[in-house]
Amino acid sequence: MANLITDVSKYLLILLAAMYTFWNFRYFNVEYERQERICRRLWRLMFLLHFLAYGVLFLNTEDWRMPVFYVVQAMFFLCYMFLWRQLYRNRSELLVNNICMLLCVGFIVLARLSFDKAARQFVIVACSAAVTLFIPFVMDRAWQLGRIPWAYGLLGLGLLGLVYVSGSTSYGARLSLTVAGVSAQPSEFVKISFVFFVAAMFYRSTDRRQVFITSAAAALHVLILVASKDLGSGLIFFITYVFMLFAATSSWGYLGLGISGGCLASAAAYAMFSHVRVRVMAWQNPWADIDNRGYQITQSLFAIGTGSWFGLGLCQGMPGRIPVVEKDFVFAAISEELGALFAFCVLLVCLGCFLQFMMIACQMKAMFYKLIALGLGTVYIVQVFLTAGGATKFIPSTGVTFPLVSYGGSSVLSTFVLFSIIQGLYILKRNQEEEDDYETE
């Protein structure tokens, strides 16, 4: 009976994910009144998917912790949505729903892989949600954010330098700092301070001297990451800076120089670092050394291929064969048991978030806020692309986690901060529109 329910459930889960994705994009094509109804429909679909998935997990594992964990999560989602609704009348309901949807998928996959890690992830998520809930409130009352660019820049460089000097090494790269037994990855938070630094610098001026100074500081961020062998984060910083520079100056020359410089830097990294060459060779032909350097990517491809379009069903695959599956290769775990169609829907939900970011960027009047929305949106979507691209062998693996889905405390907290800042910008815009309408009347 459990096998029959599992087989049927995988199609229902894909259907629910597809319906959520459809209404997620339909949201952008309707008037404001209908948007509220669509958001209510979205959270109902999310809760149905969540309930069905944990029912299947319980049937297959017979672990009574699963229903308890489900109830705790459902209460958290309801409280999180309720608090946003009570605290911020002009919030983006779509972003709140999408955060919950991505967290829902992450909890399902992590509970399937390791209940203990899923429980730890939930504690981190709950704390992150509580800490970041008041960021829009602070942004609405802090008017000096664009006047302290070097505070952001020096803070970021200091944290990255500290990691380079005394950070812990993981998989060949210096990534984290450990204080009082708590490990954190500062580069996850420096992404945000970096965006604020670049936005504040270009808010002041976009003349050649300012562009040169900003570029030098941005290059120093990237060089420290390269020296720490955290090339995935370095790539995110570089791409984000190039697009922010282009948006601020509208100069195709700067864009061309940035792309050319990126190509040269990639070639230099390949020549300088052995672990980069290993990853590139594993990407080019993982089957040539399937038991060693190609093992991780081949197991990921086997998992995705075995799952095919509709997946094997929860608890029917073997995602644990993939090293570090709960972090870098969670996309492969989703594809194996929930199917490529489900995984594609998750990517489209991420794309929906990115579109919302870009719409906010286009609608902001102040260049500082416009660049922040653009920069944070670029950070987010590039991270999603690197994770999915590495798992599918579209690009070499970079060791980047899937925001809100992968296991990892620093990634979760920094993504909550990112979404809360975007919410703050959206609330500022909506409040200003209401004030303009009131003055017009």
| Helix fraction by DSSP (H/I, runs of at least 4) | over 70%
- What is the terminal separation in angstroms? 64 Å
Number of helices: 17
The secondary-structure class comes to mainly alpha
Uncertain residue segments: none
Fraction in beta strands: under 5%
**Element-level helix/strand string:** HHHHHHHEEEHHHHHHHHHH
Radius of gyration in whole Å, from Cα?
Answer: 22 Å
In what order do the strands lie side by side in the largest sheet?
1-2-3
* Beta-strand segment tally: 3
Largest sheet: 3 strands, antiparallel
Estimate the global geometry from the Cα principal axes. globular
Mean pLDDT rating:
86
What does this entry look like structurally?
The chain is mainly alpha-helical and 441 residues long. Helix content is 75%, strand content 3%. The protein is built from 17 helices and three strands. A three-stranded antiparallel β-sheet has the order 1-2-3, with helices on one face. α1 packs parallel to α15 and α8 runs antiparallel to α16. It is globular and about 70 Å long. The protein starts with a helix and ends with a helix.
Identify the notable features of this structure and list them briefly.
441 residues; mainly alpha
Q: Summary?
A:
75% of the residues lie in helices and 3% in strands. It is mostly helical and 441 residues long.
